[in-house]
Amino acid sequence: MAIELMPLDEISPDAPGDIYVGATPAMPAPDGADRAHLFSDYRPFAALKAVCMIGQMWPNDLTADGVFWIDSQPDVCFKIRISEGIAAYRPAGYWMARHMNADALPTPIAQAITGRGGHPVYGDRIQHIQFANAGEDWDRIESMLRRCLTDDPASAPRAAQPDP
């Protein structure tokens, strides 16, 4: 399988308190005729589908960088990087919505911190992965990523789940 865990080069395990994810990363524009493609959605990836998606063989010239979240660990933001046919991922911190209802943080403040508005159910949690050199494969890649998303109500973060 082409899957690796990224080294914790940007986060010290000794860092005090929570590390929150701020603005999502932006990749530089690719060289040549190909343009960057952004995959973005608020819904979580289903955990098993995400593992299969990350572990697949990727085209060698494709590069990607971004953040994602999975339904089994809704508080954790994962960072993903794809390069030379290998996907690497690691925890990057926590979502701000971890400690609050999605609408508890005033929109202007949340938008100033994250660079985007929040979702009424998922808060600042987002799938945000930018691809370069996807070329003709983009439609297939985007379709595969969309199939990894889940709409299962049980996947909503605990604070957002409806009362029984």
Describe this structure in words.
There is one protein chain. With 164 residues, this protein is α+β, with helices and mostly antiparallel strands. It is 17% helix and 23% strand. Helix 1 packs antiparallel against helix 3.
Task: List descriptors.
single chain; 164 residues; 6-stranded mixed beta sheet; 17% helix; globular
Which strands sit side by side, in order, in the main sheet? Answer: 1-5-4-3-6-2
Order of helices and strands: EEHEEEHEH
The helical percent reads 10-25%
How many angstroms separate the termini?
A: 41 Å
Radius of gyration in whole Å, from Cα? 16 Å
| Biggest sheet descriptor | 6 strands, mixed
- DSSP summary, beta strand count: 6
Counted by DSSP, the helix tally is 3
- Multimerization status: single chain
In short:
The chain is an alpha+beta fold and 164 residues long. The chain contains three helices and six strands. A six-stranded mixed β-sheet has the order 1-5-4-3-6-2, covered by helices on one side.
Structural topology:
Elements: E1 3-5, E2 37-41, H1 47-55, E3 63-68, E4 76-83, E5 86-94, H2 107-114, E6 127-132, H3 138-148
Parallel strand pairs: 1-5
Antiparallel strand pairs: 2-6, 3-4, 3-6, 4-5
Helix pairs in contact: 1-3
